[in-house]
Hints:
The chain is of the alpha+beta class. It is about 30% helix and about 25% strand. The protein is built from 18 helices and 24 strands. Helix 1 links the parallel strand 1 and strand 2. The two termini are about 40 Å apart. Bound molecules: iron/sulfur cluster (SF4). The site of iron/sulfur cluster has 13 residues, from helix 18.
Amino acid sequence: MSQPERESMEVDILFVGAGPATLASAYHLMKQVEAHNQRCGETGETPIEPPSILVIEKAANVGDHQLSGGVMNPRAIKELMPDYQQQGFPIEYTCSQDYFWLFTRKGTIKSPITPPMFQKRGYHVVSLSNVVKWLAAKCEEVGVEIYPGFAAAEILTEGDRVIGIRTGDMGIDKHGKPKANYQPGMDIFAGVTVLGEGVRGSCTKQLIGQFGLGGANPQTYETGIKEIWRVKPEKHQPGRVVHGSMFPDFFGQINGMWLYDMKDNLISFGYVTSLSSEDPTNDPHRASQEFKRDSPFMRDLLDGAELVRYGAKCIPTGGLHAMPKLYANGAMIVGDSASMLNIMKLAGIHMAIKSGMLAAETLVDALKQRDYSSKTLGGYAERFKESWAYQEHLEGRNFTGSNEIAPLFGMLINIPLMLITKGRGLIPFIKTHPSHAAMKKIWEVPKEVRDRPPFVPDGVLTFSKEHLVGFSGTQHESDQQPHLKVADTNICATSCRTDYGNPCEKFCPAAVYEMIDVVGKPGAKELFIHHENCVHCKTCDIADPYQIITWTTPQGGEGPDYTRM
Ligand code: SF4
């Protein structure tokens, strides 16, 4: 297809993704510019021309793609807006009871003390989707433009500078041909492009690769499965926050869980599985369903309850050592995209907001000087290093590395030592590996794991992936090319099948990948992609052992609807 005519537009600052980091950043930037201009009469400084600020978001509505284990440290939102509660910040409850429990296959050991990382009293239980909607309204009040339904497909560069992004084309059929409603993507040029696409953002991945911004360690990940249930009123405990660890699995891997109560008798249950697992049959959905089935506590809690919502999302676990360089000429990275998540405390919303604020303060300098180069934008990394967010990161810096050496070494020896050595532990810097590199070949897996019978859901407490996808609200037009790009499907049918047993069929929590029989070739299989099911968790882009799956943005406005998540 020849290059189509594209519409274009130009703004001063472009934020990619409407999440807590970018929206806090856009709001803070407008407020900082306003404060600067008010001071100019006294200081004699030159006022800043109010910048044009645009936030684009791939979801149909702001907040639809936001999913989080939403127990929020209020520190950053207090700094952003000291009267946030008076302004109606959406809080479900404030944590008044925090617990840490250890789950065996059939029981619960309730720890009498809550380890420091799971102490959450005073933290707000929130729906991130609602928080982001609220932040977006605040941004609009101060003049920020927000365009939902605009998916950034690629960054635009000129030499060693980012000059904006191109949105994805709309209306291309499954054969790659334009349909009647074809509309080419738009070029949005900006002085600075701030990437806050969440975990494993596709433009961020491109930026980090193209500009060599990778951190000291590769990023590592977990997959979080989340379910919202409406429980019987007598089972509902406002202010409760539970974190739990499973006993190590066959490979020594330790999975985790969280639980907290929301308004309207809702509870949020989350189950977290490491993607650095050696197990090619690693299946986050199955693990979460089996946990519900086997845990007497969960069975009791969910007795008579009704499933309301399902979703999945990856979590960046690499922390400080995996943090990319935060800026380039014309670009900055914030939030989960920038590894701004305290994995030791399993808390990222406050870090995301803080990173956005630090980026905004640097953008004020850039606007004053009309200089969008690394020289000025590097102030963001300097501010970060001076901030409490850096200190938090420092204290958890070897958490993932400790677990990678051996989960029990981490849990019983190095992580407790980290708590008293401000993050150092026994080893100052632990080298980690990309999550996919840990996966063993299928024949190295013990027979009892490899030959486990398929999981059979009961349809009451546990459900199949296909059923649960219906509770994610996800939708994608069927007549389009899948947004999951597999570079060589021959590998799926041959070496991946024999060496790893097609792990994509297991690790995807939405039943997107299926090896189907090839017509007329008995015994042969080929990959079929049910792209409509995708819940945008990014697990496949991360966990595929051959790294031939690339998650790209589908048409703008498509994907899950994580209202209340
Ligand atoms: Fe997640 Fe990939 Fe499955 Fe989509 S296709 S739900 S991104 S694993």
